């Protein structure tokens, strides 16, 4: 898969605008007097690449696959647009580098898909490990197997890009691990509840601290990328998005799943 939206992300704003007026032009050529029907609309342009209203709809449908969204309510259109803007900027950066090194293998995509079918809360309730139940789950959320696979492939590609670009060179000291254990982890356990020894959870704490540093570097980089680029939000209703949800894992308990 080369892009999340292989046709629409390749559109310039002008081409997308023409697509929106297609129905009106067709009506005029046929001599009909009916009012023009807008097929889609451009809601934002990122470095001359259009994001359409239908892309927001697609992003909201796919959000059911994101375990980080559990308990945070439905994904709103402003938040969906922010996610799409960020992903478009990242996609453009990946394409400037050797994109082939970022591509996940089919086995990685299959493993991620099976993990979702086994562990996503909504899937656990419907026992999506069974193929017929998984098919029913997709149909209920207006998704297809191919669309889900392309989405997961793209997500894995972005994660690999972030790891390669930001994780190298980051170091976590034993003192930082001990401080997190003492000041953050231990207070999470109620009095009388067994507490794991530092040696048992040090690897997991190290992973959390590494991810926090990666997140901070990535956020700064993406903010800078957006300022340097040409990002235009064309729909006034989406101009002031809500604050994005906190990244998963920052306060995850070592030893548990994230």
How would you describe this structure to a colleague?
This protein has 258 residues and is mostly helical. The protein has a single domain, classed as Orthogonal Bundle (Triger factor/SurA peptide-binding fold). It has ten helices and three strands, in the order H-H-E-E-H-H-H-H-H-H-H-H-E. A three-stranded antiparallel beta sheet has the order 2-1-3, sandwiched between helices. Helix 9 packs across helix 10. The longest helix is centred in the C-terminal third of the chain and has 31 residues. The radius of gyration is 22 Å and the shape is globular. The N terminus and C terminus are likely disordered.
Could you say which structural class the secondary elements and strand pairing correspond to? mainly alpha
Mean pLDDT: 78
Q: Quickly count the helices.
A: 10
Instruction: Find the CATH superfamily.
Output: Porin chaperone SurA, peptide-binding domain
| Order of strands across the main sheet | 2-1-3
Q: Please trace the helix and strand order, writing H or E for each element.
A: HHEEHHHHHHHHE
CATH topology call? Triger factor/SurA peptide-binding fold
Keywords:
Triger factor/SurA peptide-binding fold, disordered N terminus, mainly alpha, 55% helix, 258 residues, globular, 3-stranded antiparallel β-sheet
In brief:
This protein is mainly alpha-helical and 258 residues long. The protein has helices at 13-20, 22-29, 53-62, 77-96, 106-119, 121-126, 131-140, 145-167, 174-185, 198-228, and strands at residues 42-46, 49-52, 231-233. It starts with 12 loop residues before the first helix and ends in a 25-residue tail after the last strand.
